[in-house]
Amino acid sequence: MSDLVEPAIGRSKTSFINDPKVRSIGLQLIALVLVVFLGWMFVDNARQNLAAQKIATGFGFLDNTAGFGISQTLVPYSETSTYGRAFLVGLLNTLLVAVVGIFFATIIGFFVGIGRLSKNFVVRLLSTIYVEVIRNLPPLFQILFWYLAVLSAMPSPRQSINLLGEVFISNRGIIVPRPVFEAGTGYVLWSFGAALLVVIVLHYWSRERRAETGRGLPMLPIGLGLMIVVPFIAMALTGFPISLERPELKGFNFVGGVRVIPEFVALTVALATYTGAFIAENVRAGIQSVSHGQTEAAHSLGLRNGHTLRLVVIPQAMRVIIPPLTSQYLNLTKNSSLAVGIGYPDLVAVFAGTTLNQTGQAIEIIAITMGVYLVLSIITSVIMNVYNKRVALVER
Amino acid sequence: MMKRLLSTLALAGACGLAAVGAQAQTKPAKLDQIKAKGFVQCGVSQGLPGFSTPDDKGNWTGLDVDFCRAVAAAVFGDATKVKFTPLSAKDRFTALQSGDIDVLSRNTTWTISRDTSLGLNFTGVTYYDGQGFMIRKDKKVTSAMELSGASVCTQTGTTTEQNLADFFRANNMTYEVIAFATNDEVVKAYDAGRCDVLTTDRSGLAGERLKLTNPDDHIVLPEIISKEPLGPVVAHGDDQWFDIVKWVLFAQLTAEELGVNSKNVDEQLKSSANPEVKRLLGTEGKFGEGMGIGNDWGYQIVKTVGNYGEMYDRNVGPDTPLKLARGVNALWNKGGLQYAPPIR
């Protein structure tokens, strides 16, 4: 083709200024210079004016002592830690909610989405009610409901609900025993890892054998058995190095054990159920996009309903489900900033809240916070796009 | 959140664009801006009984609110020429820095970092306070030293958060802090039993106790763990406006000291022979002119809002639901800390 077109353009005849290529590059260069100049002017003026008002600037504050407490910290943090450390604590708390929330939202979404298409009337009705109610209420309202309404109904630590004698539920959260690791734990962990490796190898071997002979191993009981029995033997040999530290009621609160704070529970439950309702609709749309002929074909091959869904329908539905699913994951991550309404110490509450107020460096802190959400969203998008490429229909 | 983002954008925008082209010198004086728009924009609390609360008709009452009215009276001779912006603790300084509000009168503690690195000027102390703890009576706690292990609810973006950390650290006690964005959320969570203790300034505790389901089931512990001088704040960079806001409070204090109040001010204006009263009410000297406002500024403040004592008794005094005795907030010659430099 190009051989035919090229002589027609005739580079020598058009003047330099009328060359579309030169023009477009020139215009883009001018636009770029303008944008960079405007950005530079903005930053420079902001700096001058902040200096004129004697407002502190720069990122040096990140090394100053924070001096405030945080109720949930995944990394060691105390009042003597720096604002930079507080930033990390807030970021990890945000990530924790996002990851746990996405995990449960996906499970809820898939089950409810399939339930919406169930032949069973009750399942279909319940799924529809769930989606329509949850999807149409504002998320902040749902978070407040899970926090205040459910919290008020919980007993005080002294009267806490006791499950199995080990888990305590009260208005201070859910307290579970903490595993304590003593010498010899390493052997147990190694044995667990070894068992896991064996199970994985067995799984692939069994799959190959099934493809060849049509008969595989019953992997579920074998796998579970190996994973439980081997570490147990290791524990018995090393004299049970892993014990449980039981929470005890002392004074105001439980001492010992691991505590899941109610703010975290309320936020995660609210976000998972809310986003789950949207994911359910994506899943339903995805399944309905697979033509009924596929199901019939699978049935005529003798596949049962479960197998048809798992092996034929869902793999084809995935390519419709994934792109909007990405948006829902991003929504959940961003909605986690509503945490500030119930006192969960996420990035916005700890960093764009307390830290901003104490240091007064609004521009720097808001910029960092926006940058973090942007990076989180982009990472999620990239991962989901890679996955999408893998499940997309390969067209020839 | 939205509000904060807008304020920040406004701050960034104001700082970034104000000086485009010409330099910052062209910015008109705050007083001229206020006179041009016709009202004082005043940042207040979103709802703290005794200091600033709106009633069901949207009328604001409280000590902080009355101070804003006194500023409006001084500038315009009309206490109604003021608009209120309700602000959460963490949004308040950004609003002031960005110029969204002219003066912040929101039970704000005067500290060195706020006075310097935040770019603010505290104009005085309208209420000398200290941080305290409130707890349920049935916990049978009588002293803050017994609070080890307690869960504490407080508002984020306050000095309270840091004092709390200092207090528990200094006394080797453990605690868990749950910080909320607004007062109302703090009170709701405390009422729901999420925490054992609610902490804030003691005047705030008196006000917030009234919002609880059964106020009588709660007590305020005797310990005062910090100094909390609460006062109005203006932004750096305009000395004239700083002077006006500063002297409004001094005028109210001077009026109380001289026995001039909203009921007798007209009579005093006509008949008083005391030169101090004459200077306060503007019949002698031209002190208002020196600040760029009317010479009758003192008269207008006392006539429409009253002196400091009247303002105190009306909003937080012993006859109000808050029942706060004058204590350290009495005038210096009555055993308190309130002291105004002379008007001369």
UniProtKB/TrEMBL annotation, chain A:
Q: Does the keyword Aminoacyl-tRNA synthetase apply?
A: no
The UniProt entry lists the main location of this chain as membrane
Name where it's found.
Answer: Cell inner membrane; Cell membrane
Transmembrane stretches, start-end:
25-43, 55-75, 87-112, 133-154, 187-205, 217-240, 260-280, 338-356, 362-387
A GO molecular function annotation here is: transmembrane transporter activity
Its cellular-component GO annotations read: ATP-binding cassette (ABC) transporter complex
Highest taxon above the source species? Bacteria
Q: Where is the signal peptide?
A: none
Q: Keywords on this record?
A: Amino-acid transport, Cell membrane, Membrane, Transmembrane, Transmembrane helix, Transport
- Sequence ranges assigned to domain ABC transmembrane type-1 in this UniProt record: 91-384
Instruction: Give the matching SUPFAM superfamilies.
Output: MetI-like
Q: Which Pfam families does the record associate with it?
A: BPD_transp_1
Specify whether Amino-acid biosynthesis is a keyword of the entry: no
How does this protein lie in the membrane?
Multi-pass membrane protein
Q: Name one GO biological process term.
A: amino acid transport
Extract the PANTHER family matched here. AMINO-ACID ABC TRANSPORTER PERMEASE PROTEIN YHDX-RELATED, MEMBRANE COMPONENT OF AMINO ACID ABC TRANSPORTER
To which protein family does this belong? Belongs to the binding-protein-dependent transport system permease family. HisMQ subfamily.
| Name used for this protein in its record | General L-amino acid transport system permease protein
Give the species this sequence originates from.
Ancylobacter tetraedralis
TrEMBL record, chain B:
Positions of transmembrane segments:
none
GO BP terms: namely: amino acid transport
Asked if the keyword Nucleus belongs to this entry, the reply reads no
Q: Which InterPro entries match?
A: Bact_solute-bind_prot3, SBP_3_CS, Solute-binding_3/MltF_N
Signal sequence range: 1-24
Which keywords annotate this record? Answer: Signal, Transport
Q: Name one Pfam family in it.
A: SBP_bac_3
In which family does this protein belong, per the annotation? Belongs to the bacterial solute-binding protein 3 family.
Q: What is this protein called?
A: General L-amino acid transport system substrate-binding protein
